[in-house]
Design a protein that fits this description.
This protein is elongated. Helix 14 runs parallel beside helix 18 (965-976), helix 18 (965-976) runs parallel beside helix 21 and helix 18 (965-976) runs parallel beside helix 22 (1065-1077). It has 1125 residues and is an alpha/beta fold. It contains 24 helices and 57 strands. The chain has five domains: 15-59 and 350-441, Immunoglobulin-like; 66-331, Glycosidases (TIM Barrel, Alpha-Beta Barrel), CATH 3.20.20.80; 450-570, Trefoil (Trefoil (Acidic Fibroblast Growth Factor, subunit A)); 586-802, Sandwich (Jelly Rolls), CATH 2.60.120.200; 834-1041, no CATH class. The strands form eleven sheets. A nine-stranded mixed beta sheet has the order 15-14-17-12-11-10-1-13-16.
Length: 1125
């Protein structure tokens, strides 16, 4: 392919028609009256990417998918990681090279070939060092180069490598070519002719300039004159994608002027250190490399080989967010089609293709912050129809070294193609993320329409308006199941939704439509654009709610977990914090410190701050990094990339101080190799220049010395780019804090450095920045007396903040949608009081709303007496109330008075129910009886005789008195069949004459023996069976035994009761209610319902369920009839 600028065809649709009008016509298939109003406020041209789907301009070849040193060795990374990228080309080290320990062409060409990729061999990487330890000064050294090249080519030929697409003689001659080696052009001519001799069929590419192509004219003129024009032109784009267009135009003009024709171009390194691994930063490169006709392009090698150009977290490691974007790119086929960003310098960019069948459009977009429109024109010229399906997905970015599991689908939506052949896809973008749109024939769209309780993933609490008024703030509250916590998601089309409160009808929005961090969420009337939300799922099933009007995400103030905390909005991918370098200082090593708070803000010091240092000098500072990011600068003073002095927290293998007046190749360095500054701890770093010796001190200890430290700050000229936290290059911003930065015009002694390292304040006499400002935080006060005050420059984006925070760092931004379905099972209610006594009262009020002829009263502190009392009370038509052994709770006394019973039965002797309680009860009725035996078993028999003696009972339930669940569960069954529950000591082998006589006196012919042999022994069961027709009802546990009891007693039931099987208090009185109503009573777990119980309720036809007891005896999960397991 040739170097031709792919100028987009003239647009047939004028932007003068208005992006908003286009969006109004195409914002989805759901017609809502308010949608036209919303569309009129859609993002304008500055946030709109236009895709002309019917304007192809070149074949889709995935040409920008390769990388420099992307493969370390065969198998590293694995073929499984390489193949999905469909890489075009890898640039690798020649055989026997010493520039890097990995990446030798002979070790990687087969791995590249298996992926269908070619290899460019960078010949000069045969040599070590930077600049290269290479000499070109005499015949002998030139012969050394010639022999090396001959040997390289011979080894490649011998290996049978069939995918070598070019030889590149040199790398970045504008930086690495040493003047003592003479003319680079002479070297080029020699190398070109040598390669033509020994590898005549392999293309040659060069000159491989870095970021400065100003030497291209001289190079091309020389190459034309000497007949050494490269087959492929080569340079790097390592500063900004904005420069690609200008460089292409410059080279095109030179080729035209020199009549050299079209020459393919390989951009063998693109993207800065801070952009690799971040999909939103890489999209503009992809778009411009394609748009301006580049033939091949490779991601750079900034950190580690074998990472596919920093698409993996480490050598052969896991994919990061950018990796997945390149898998999207690999799916492009057919033709590339025209995309138009807002401007060449806009962060919003995109690249698109249409397949050969013209029934699929793929778009990769990213880089913008907040609400964004992707306008897709020309769909009426494709084979898609009047309706199309739009799949929108994203790949998050948490930083180069943080793995990402894969893309996540945001929506699958059906769009109606507008009359002009267009649709508009809205996206609320995180500028670090990548977004993928696939337009295909219409299918079945997906929707979140429905009613939900929306709970915060961090607090577990639900969204709820703080009040009923229009515009009241929204807060978080414990889940209650109320209508105030139910929100109806109503589709507004195109994957956007309104969130309307079920109780008030008001929609969730942002107060005043503010776009700032921290603005409160409100429930209000109207149809404002800040009431449109795009639910963005994460990988766990939770959602972020991104606001289409404000561009922010829904969260909780301060990530609070407190009941009633306000709901607000915050920038996506940014932790909720008040830390901003322009508005506050943070705790420092001494006083307060300048903390950049994870932003791209930086400090700017005055011009010439170090220019007067022509002799000895020192700089001391305290640093507290939150991340050790390669090449991020603590400070960087200079005039640009050729003249500067800087301290970086990492040069790839430890901290480095460097000073140069002649570019990177002339640096005088101090390196603490193999070390890292500790994270989130204060460390003192001091640089001392004494004579020709430079020393780096860390916490008072000399860690690096350079005896050829001859460059002085004065040699940098009048420095006008003096930064704290920022680089002369496009390196990542420093993420951390700085304190007590001092500049001296003398060499500090080792003792002075050690003293500073103890925490004593420095006292720089050139400039001294303590960062102790208490107001006007944009000013950095110089306390040296020289009035060299600096300023804070706020970074771009969301208040200058990086948007790559992990999900764990922003837990309050994630919400769970729990569907509120129309009831399909039994209606559930709950009867509960503050304690067991009030619960019994509430049960009495429910079961006997007027009066009752009798009231049974039992000790609520223990269960045995009440177990038999419930069925007896039910049979006689009265409730069971509970008292303490020594008193009557006020609520119980009031309930007895309300019921006005003719008779009270006191169950249990003293001290179960004391004489004083008995006396008090005597005053509440005309008749009172105490039934209290020598033990629980005699009391049980007395209850059965008292209640059932006159009428008799053909059926009786026999249960153990040593534990409560079996007898409790029998309450409903016994009541439904007018049968007593009789307690026995089931562990003995003898039923006893008293119980045997009772069964005879009552006329019992059938008995149900409850529980297995651990509850009632086989010997006792034998005794019972001798007297009656006995049937044992037992299950594998108490819950299964309850099921067996109810299955035996009930064929159908309209109502059922649930009680905890873990404790007895709440359910004691409930057994009397269940008995009265003739309904089954099941015991369940506190936090779930056994599936078998749910099956029984369904089989019986139960339409209503009452829970006996409050939280936590029976949880909300039980209330929703949630099955166990």
């Amino acid at each position: 392919m040739s170097l031709t600028t792919a100028h987009p065809p003239t647009l047939r649709r004028s932007l003068a028609l208005g992006i908003a009008a286009t969006m109004a016509a195409s914002l989805g298939v759901v017609s809502l009256p308010q949608l036209a109003d919303e569309a009129s406020a859609a993002p304008g041209p500055a946030a709109t990417l236009i895709v002309e789907a019917d304007q192809p301009f070149r074949e889709a070849t995935v040409m920008a998918s390769g990388s420099l040193y992307g493969i370390a060795s065969d198998g590293v990374p694995s073929d499984a990681l390489i193949a999905p990228l469909k890489p075009d080309t890898f640039v690798q080290m020649p055989p026997g090279g010493t520039q890097q320990p990995t990446g030798d062409t002979l070790n990687v060409w087969q791995a590249a070939d298996r992926a269908g990729a070619g290899v460019v061999v960078r010949l000069v990487d045969y040599y070590p060092g930077w600049p290269y330890q290479f000499s070109w000064t005499d015949t002998q050294t030139r012969l050394g180069w010639e022999n090396a090249v001959r040997d390289i080519v011979a080894k490649i030929d011998a290996a049978g490598a069939t995918n070598i697409v070019a030889y590149a003689p040199w790398n970045e001659p504008d930086i690495t070519w040493r003047t003592q080696n003479g003319s680079f052009l002479d070297f080029w001519e020699f190398s070109y002719n040598l390669l033509r001799e020994i590898a005549p069929d392999v293309p040659i590419q060069g000159p491989n300039y870095s970021t400065d192509i100003s030497g291209m004219r001289e190079f091309l003129e020389f190459a034309k004159e000497t007949n050494t024009v490269p087959d492929v032109l080569e340079w790097h784009e390592l500063i900004s994608p904005d420069r690609i267009q200008g460089h292409v135009n410059t080279v095109n003009a030179l080729l035209d002027e020199l009549e050299l024709g079209d020459i393919p171009v390989d951009i063998t390194e693109y993207a800065t250190t801070g952009e690799v691994g971040i999909p939103g930063k890489l999209v503009p490169y992809l778009a411009k490399l394609e748009r301006y006709g580049i033939d091949r392009a490779e991601l750079p090698f900034w950190n580690q080989s074998g990472t596919l150009g920093d698409l993996l977290t480490s050598r052969g490691g896991s994919p990061n967010g950018a990796y997945w974007m390149y898998t999207w790119y690999a799916q492009f086929e057919g033709d590339m089609v025209t995309t138009t960003p807002p401007s060449n310098s806009s962060p919003l960019e995109g690249v698109a293709s249409v397949n050969d069948d013209k029934d699929e459009v793929r778009i990769i977009a990213g880089g913008n912050t907040g609400a964004t429109s992707i306008v897709v024109n020309g769909l009426d010229q494709l084979n898609l129809g009047d309706d199309v399906n739009v799949m929108l997905e994203y790949t998050p970015a948490y930083g180069r070294t943080t793995p990402t599991a894969g893309p996540i689908t945001i929506s699958n939506t059906t769009y109606e193609v507008g009359s002009d052949g267009s649709i508009t896809v809205p996206i609320v973008m995180n500028p670090a993320y990548g977004y993928h749109i696939v337009v295909t024939e219409a299918g079945v769209g997906e929707t979140l329409d429905g009613s939900y309780v929306i709970t915060n993933g961090n607090s577990g609490m639900a969204l709820e308006p703080s009040g009923p008024a229009d515009g009241d703030p929204v807060v978080q509250k414990p889940t209650s199941g109320s209508d105030a916590q139910t929100w109806n998601l109503v589709s507004a089309g195109s994957g956007l939704y309104r969130l309307e409160n079920a109780e008030s009808g008001f929609a969730l929005g942002i107060q005043g439509g503010a776009t700032t961090n921290g603005a409160l969420a409100v429930a209000a009337s109207g149809t404002a654009e800040n009431q449109l939300w795009q639910p963005v799922p994460d990988s766990t099933g939770k959602y972020r709610f991104t606001n289409y009007g404000t561009g922010q995400t829904l969260g909780v103030v301060g990530a609070s977990t407190q009941d009633g905390a306000s709901i607000n909005q915050w920038a996506d991918g940014v932790a909720s914090t008040g830390c901003q370098p322009t508005t506050s200082r943070q705790p420092g090593k001494i006083g307060t410190a300048l903390d950049f708070c994870g932003t791209s803000s930086y400090g700017q010091l005055p011009t010439g701050v170090v220019s007067g240092l022509s002799g000895d000098w020192s700089i001391s500072t305290w640093v507290k990094p939150k991340a050790v990011t390669t090449w991020s600068r603590v400070f960087d003073f200079g005039t640009g990339q050729s003249a500067n002095m800087f301290l970086t927290v990492s040069a790839g293998n430890g901290p480095r101080f460097a000073i140069t007046s002649g570019g990177a190749g002339s640096e005088k360095q101090l390196n603490w190799t193999g070390q890292n500054l500790p994270l989130d701890q204060w460390t003192n770093v001091t640089i001392v220049s004494s004579g020709t010796t430079g020393t780096m001190y860390v916490n008072g200890n000399a860690v690096s010395t350079n005896t050829s430290f001859t460059t002085k700050p004065s040699a940098l000229g009048q420095t006008n780019r003096n930064y704290i936290g920022k680089s002369q290059y496009s390196d990542p911003a420093y993420n951390g804090a700085v304190d007590d930065l001092a500049i001296y015009d003398r060499a500090l002694s080792a003792q002075e450095v050690a003293t500073i390292a103890t925490g004593q304040a420095a006292a720089g006499n050139v400039a001294n920045y303590k960062f102790d400002e208490t107001s006007n935080f944009t000013t950095l006060v110089d306390s040296s007396g020289n009035s060299r005050n600096g300023t804070i420059v706020a970074g771009t984006g969301s208040s200058g903040t990086a948007t790559t925070a992990t999900d764990a760092a922003t837990p309050d931004r994630f919400w769970t949608l729990t569907a509120v379905e129309e009831p399909t099972g039994p209606a559930v209610d709950r009867v509960a009081g503050d304690d067991r006594f009030e619960t019994a009262v509430k049960i009495s009020q429910q079961s006997y709303p007027d009066t009752a002829p009798v009231v049974y009263v039992a000790n609520g502190r223990d269960y045995p007496d009440a177990l038999s009392a419930g069925p007896a009370a039910a049979f006689q038509g009265g409730p069971l109330l509970l008292v303490t052994p020594g008193g009557i709770p006020e609520t119980v006394a009031a309930e007895i008075a309300r019921l006005s019973p003719a008779k009270i039965v006191v169950v249990g002797g003293e001290p179960s129910v004391s004489a004083s309680v008995y006396t008090q009860l005597t005053a509440m009725t005309d008749s009172i009886t105490r039934l209290g035996g020598a033990d629980r078993y005699e009391t049980s028999r007395m209850l059965a005789e008292y209640a059932f003696g006159d009428s008799g009972a053909s059926l009786a339930y026999i249960a153990t008195g040593t534990k409560f669940p079996d007898a409790l569960a029998a309450g409903g069954a016994a009541g439904a069949q007018d049968a007593p529950v009789i307690l026995v000591n089931g562990s003995t082998g003898d039923l006893g004459t008293a119980t045997a006589d009772l069964l005879g006196d009552l006329g019992v012919t059938d008995t149900r023996v409850l529980g297995d042999v651990n509850s009632i022994s086989d010997d006792m069961f034998y005794d019972i069976d001798q007297l009656t027709n006995a049937v044992r009802l037992a299950g594998s546990n108490r819950y299964e035994t309850a099921r067996a009891i109810n299955a035996d007693a009930f064929d159908t039931a309209e109502h059922a009761f649930l009680s905890t099987g873990a404790n007895f208090p709440d359910a004691l009185a409930g057994s009397a209610w269940a008995g009265k109503s003739g309904s089954p009573l099941y015991t369940v777990y506190p936090d779930c319902v056994p599936q078998g119980v749910l099956d029984d309720l369904d089989a019986l036809g139960v339409t209503g369920v009452t829970l006996l007891g409050g939280l936590p005896s029976l949880s909300a999960s039980v209330e929703s009839l949630t099955a166990c397991g």
